[in-house]
Amino acid sequence: MRCIEKQRDHNSLAFNPTRVDYTCCFQQLHANTGSCLIAIFHMVVSSAVLYWAARSLATGHKSRIDAGFELVLASFALLVSLVLLAGLKCESRRVITVYIAVQVVAISLLFILFLALIMGLKAGILDDPDHNGYKTIEEEMLIVVEILCSLALVGLEVWFLTVVLRSYRFIIHKQQYFGVDREENL
């Protein structure tokens, strides 16, 4: 038991679950619903990558190292998405914080990839060109498309992060208003 009680947030005195601060997707969904949809989206994408990597490993189209790395990464992404769903179900701040931390690291890595593509340090997401550089205009256009795709992916993941942060704020305000932490009661 704490000696000093936690101060309540001034926003928690007027807690309203339907407030605009807790909505997402152009104010059409509640932040918790949006976060669940984001977790499901990440689970579908991770499952597709797992299937694709396992299939390419079985057929021999990829090296064992590349396919193994993709399998580990997709499995980790699937696990983190399940963690988000569990955190939303239990209304656990600590569990959702794990997802937020992993999401920030993923956004940082995607942004570094974006910068590497722009600066020419990485020749491409899919494949590196020969030592002589690009030979055709198609290869040059492919790198431009990869740059735009990586920027769009960074933007999408940042938007997903803001939705999850709204859901996190909703859970914090709800716990402050009711004065109970569901984590401790479970």
Outline of the structure:
This protein has 186 residues and is mostly helical. 69% of the residues lie in helices and 2% in strands. Mean pLDDT is 83; it is low at 1-5.
Oligomer: single chain
Q: How many separate domains make up the residues?
A: 1
Question: Which percent range fits the helix content?
Answer: 55-70%
- Please trace the helix and strand order, writing H or E for each element: EEHHHHH
Mean of all residue-level pLDDT scores:
83
Tell me the number of strands.
2
Sheet with the most strands?
2 strands, antiparallel
The Cα radius of gyration reads: 21 Å
Percent strand equals: under 5%
**Secondary structure category:** mainly alpha
Which strand order does the major sheet show? 1-2
The stretches of 5 or more residues where confidence is low (pLDDT under 50) are 1-5
Span of the ends, CA to CA: 17 Å
Number of helices: 5
Q: Identify the overall geometry.
A: elongated
Keywords: Membrane, Transmembrane, Transmembrane helix
InterPro entries: LAPTM_transporter
Main location: membrane
Subcellular location: Endomembrane system
